[in-house]
C-alpha cells in the first residue's frame, strides 16, 4: 500500500471532540494537535464545564 492509497482509505475524523482537563498546558496542547488533524474541538476547563457542554450538544469523542 502506498502512502497515497493509505490516505484514501482512512476514514474521516469524527466531527466533534470534547477535551476536558483542568491543566491548561495539557488541554491546549491536545486541542492544538487535534485541530491540526482536522478535528472540531470544544474545550472544557473542569468537570462542571464538561457536563454543561455535553448537555448542550452531542460529541463523537470525549477526552478527559
TL;DR?
This protein has 64 residues and is an alpha/beta fold. The protein has helices at residues 3-9, 24-36, 47-56; strands at 16-20, 40-44, 61-63.
Using brief descriptors, characterize the structure shown:
64 residues, alpha/beta, three-stranded parallel sheet, 20% strand, flat
Describe this protein's structure.
- The structure is a single chain.
- With 64 residues, this protein is of the alpha/beta class.
- The chain is built from three helices and three strands, in the order H-E-H-E-H-E.
- Strands 2-1-3 form a three-stranded parallel sheet.
- Strand 1, helix 2 and strand 2 form a beta-alpha-beta unit.
Detail the topology: elements first, then pairings.
Layout: H1 3-9, E1 16-20, H2 24-36, E2 40-44, H3 47-56, E3 61-63
Parallel strand pairs: 1-2, 1-3
Order of the strands making up the biggest sheet: 2-1-3
Biggest beta sheet summary = 3 strands, parallel
Separation, N- and C-terminal Cα atoms: 35 Å
Query: What do the pLDDT scores average to?
Result: 89
**Outline, from the CA principal axes?**
flat
| Number of strand segments | 3
Percent range for β-strand residues: 15-25%
Amino acid at each position: 500500500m502506498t502512502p497515497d492509497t493509505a490516505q484514501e482509505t482512512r476514514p474521516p475524523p469524527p466531527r466533534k471532540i470534547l477535551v476536558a482537563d483542568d491543566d491548561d498546558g495539557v488541554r491546549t496542547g491536545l486541542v492544538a494537535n487535534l485541530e491540526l488533524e482536522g478535528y472540531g474541538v470544544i474545550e472544557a476547563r473542569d468537570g462542571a464545564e464538561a457536563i454543561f457542554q455535553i448537555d448542550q450538544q452531542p460529541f463523537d469523542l470525549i477526552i478527559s
